[in-house]
Amino acid sequence: MVGFTSNLSAQKHDYTWLFSEQYIISNDWGEASMLDFNSSPPAISAPDSVQMIFGGTNFTMSNAEGELIFYTNGCEIHNARHQLMENGDGINPGDVHDVHCHESQHSPGYIVPTQGALALLKPGSNYVYYLFHIRSAYDPVLGPPYGSHINLLYTIVDMTQSSGNGIVYDKNTVLVDNSSSFTPLGEITAVKHANGQDWWIICPENQGNYYHKFLLTSEGIVEQSGQNIGTSIFRFTQGQSVFSPDGSKFAYILNDENEGIRLFDFDRETGLFSNPHFFPIPDDPGIQAGAAFSPSGRYLYASYNFELYQFDLWAPDIEASRVLIDTFDGYADPIPTHFANMQLGPDCRIYVFCSSCTTIHIIHNPDEGGTDCNFEQNAIQLPFGMRQFSNSIYPNYRLGPIDNPGEPCDSGIVNSSNTILPAKGISLFPNPSSGEAIHLQTGWTEANTAEAILFNALGQPVWQRTLELFGGNATFQLDHLPEGWYQLSLRAEGEQNVIPLMIQR
Hints:
Helix content: under 10%
Structural class: mainly beta
Number of strands: 34
Oligomer: single chain
Radius of gyration: 22 Å
Largest sheet: 5 strands, antiparallel
Distance between the termini: 36 Å
Strand content: 35-45%
C-alpha cells in the first residue's frame, strides 16, 4: 500500500463501506459485503457476522485509522464486533420504526432518503461521534405506506465506553421538527467550517427552497439561521446533496419532473449559499439520481438513471459544458444496474452505485475531461448473493482550514503500481464459467506473458500463474475451485486490470 500523508492517515473515517442483501431475497439475515480502502485496490470481503439489513438508511463509520467502529441502518447501531451497541436500539422511534425495525430476520431497516444518516467526529475529541439521522412518520390521514421524512435528529456515540465497543447516549434528540406541516426533509450532508475543525450540517427541505443549517463545535450543536435560495423543490424521488472537496460549491440533484441540479457557491466562514444555478435534467424517466465532484472540484458528475453526465465548473457557461459520458449498457443481475448516487472514494475514484444490484460502476480518472475520465460500468462485482440496496454517503473528512485545505483523497494510490486501469479490450468468456477452458482476451499484443492472481470473495489469493500470451490471448482452467464470485488481477506491459469472474456449475 502506498504511504499516506499525515493529514490523510489521521482522517480515514470513510475507509470501510458496508452493504447488505435485500431482506426480500433471503430467509435469513441476508449477507453482507464490505469494501476496505486500507488496501489497494480496495479489498472485497463478506463478513458473515453482520446481522443487519440496510433497507434505506446506511452509514458505516471508521475511526481515524480506517478501522470499522460502528454502523447503523436507522433502526439501531452495531459496533465493530457486529453486536448491538449498548443503548443502541430504538433509533428513530415511531410508527415507521415499528413497521420497519421489528426484531425479526426480515426486518428491512429504516426507509428514508439515501442520505438518511451521517456521522461526524465531535471537534476536539477523538472518540465522541454525533450521528445525525432523519425520522419518518406515516401520513396521519392516509396512513401506511404514505408518509414523509419530517424530523432531523441526532444521537451521540462515545467509543471510550464499554471496553472500546461504545455506548449510545443523548439518543434521538430533535433538531428539526416538521411534524405539524409534514414538509419532507431531504438528504443530509456536511462540510468543514473555514477553521478546519467545526462542521456545517445542511439538510434541505423537499418542498420549497429552504435549507436548514447547524454548526457542530467542541461545545456541541449550535443552530444557525436557515436560508431560502434558488428554485423551489417539490419531489418524492431519490436525490443527493454534496459539497465539492474544498467546500466552495454545493450541489443538490433530484430526478423528477421539472427537477435537476441546483448548484450554489458556499462560504465556509459564514455558512451562506450564493450564486444559485439550476440545470434541468434531460428527458430521462426514473427515480434515481446522484452527484459527485472530482477531486480538484473542476468537474461535477450527474447521474440520471440511464445516463451519466459531466459538467465543467471552470467553463464560462457551465450548463453548455455538459458532456454525455455514457449511457446504461442494459446489464441486469437480475435488476438493471441503473446509475444512482455516487461517492468520491479515498483512492480518488468516483464510485457510482445502483439501487438494488451486485455491481458498482467506477469513474477511474474523474479529473479528466469528457470520456477521458474512464468510466467503467459494472467494474466491481460484490460477492455472490449480495444486494447493495443502500450505501453510505460521506463528507470530506480530510478538509482543512481555508489556508491549508489539504487533499480530499490519496492520488498516490491511483498513480502507484497498484493502479487499476479500466479493462478496455480485456474480457473473460464464458463468464459465468464452469472453470473449464476459460478464455482470456487482452489488448496486450506485444506482451509474451501476463501475471495472474485470482482472489476469492474474502479478498484472499487462491490461484496464481504466469500466463503465456499468444496475440494477447490465453486459455486456462479453474475447475478445482468452488462456485462463487472471484476477482482476477492481471498485470502486463506495466498495467494492471481487475476483472470479475463467476464460477458456476
